[in-house]
Specification:
It is built from 15 helices and 9 strands. The strands form 3 sheets. A 3-stranded antiparallel beta sheet has the order 1-3-2. Strands 4-6-5 form a 3-stranded antiparallel beta sheet. It is globular.
């Protein structure tokens, strides 16, 4: 009777090294200023900002730390790495070259311009569906911004009539997830975000019409390109896409020959073997049947 396939408790070291290079989990590749941060976001396509090793995927904070085990301390104000990551997040946001908002699972996300149409196709709410999809509070805030174009938090609360802080926060987060509103600036004395319409900063990208299947494919492509291998449920956990949608995106990559299916829910970048020198992959990647167990 044949033995069952061996369960892999972690990613192969070759894949970890691949991610180290692209996600900047290497002390020689850390990001130290705005230019570094913008190159990093451009390379990975999309990333979170202040997540650490306890959350999957690339992030500004991990790239500042330059190590796999980066762990955000409780007292972030006195931690130089946390402070730098926060500062870079603000500087890139102000620069306006990359989309910044709470999109993926309600977490602060940077998206490179080339991927904005695909994110909008998956998370955005068309204007004709706003009355059905958006809450009353969110629509009230949106109505004000369409008149004023840009407004600080306190002024926007008053003008929209959504004066309760908790209600306003829920509504502004809803508008960010729907890719309607973004912060364009933050001031700290007193603390306030300046809010604006997303279409005011990225009109061309948000005007592009993309079908859902194409968007799923391109978001899956962006992640697999920088991850090397996608484990079962990994794309869904990072982006907030449903498991079926994330799986559909990966299936489309297999169909076009961009990815190879190793086992149920586990996909490998097909060109990975051709990138050994660049990605510092010393040996062929082993068959990782059941590697999905690592992220269950």
């Amino acid at each position: 009777m044949p033995h069952p396939p061996r369960k892999i408790a972690s990613l192969p070291e070759e894949i970890e090294l691949y991610r180290d290079r692209i996600w900047r989990r290497n002390p020689e590749l850390i990001i130290e200023d705005r230019a570094d941060a913008e190159r990093f976001i451009g390379d990975v396509g999309f990333c979170l900002t202040l997540t650490d090793s306890r959350y999957p995927g690339p992030s500004i904070y991990i790239a500042v730390c330059g190590r796999r085990d980066a762990h955000m301390p409780r007292n972030v104000q006195k931690d130089p790495e946390s402070s730098l990551a926060w500062t870079l997040k603000d500087e890139v946001m102000r620069g306006g070259g990359f989309y910044y908002a709470k999109i993926m699972k309600g977490k602060s996300t940077f998206v490179a311009p080339r991927l904005i149409p695909y994110f909008n196709a998956l998370w955005g709410v068309p204007r004709g569906k706003e009355s059905d999809k958006l809450s009353i509070d969110a629509r009230a805030i949106l109505k004000v911004l369409r008149k004023e174009w840009e407004m600080a938090t306190s002024d926007l609360r008053g003008a929209s009539g959504v004066k309760d802080r908790a209600r306003f926060t829920r509504a502004i987060d809803e508008l960010q997830r729907a890719m309607k509103v973004i912060p364009s600036e933050v001031v700290y004395q007193p603390f306030s975000y300046i809010w604006m319409l997303a279409e005011g900063r990225f009109p061309e990208q948000l005007a592009v019409k993309v079908k859902k299947e194409e968007a799923l494919c391109e978001v899956a492509r962006a992640f697999l390109s920088v991850a090397g291998i996608t484990l079962q449920g990994e794309l869904s956990r990072i982006t907030g896409l449903s498991r079926p949608d994330a799986g559909r995106g990966n299936h489309l990559l297999v169909a076009e020959g961009f990815a190879k299916r190793l086992s149920e829910g586990v996909y490998q970048l097909r060109t990975l073997y051709q990138r050994d020198d660049e990605a510092q992959l010393s040996n062929p990647i082993p068959d990782i049947e059941y590697a999905k167990q690592a992220h269950k």
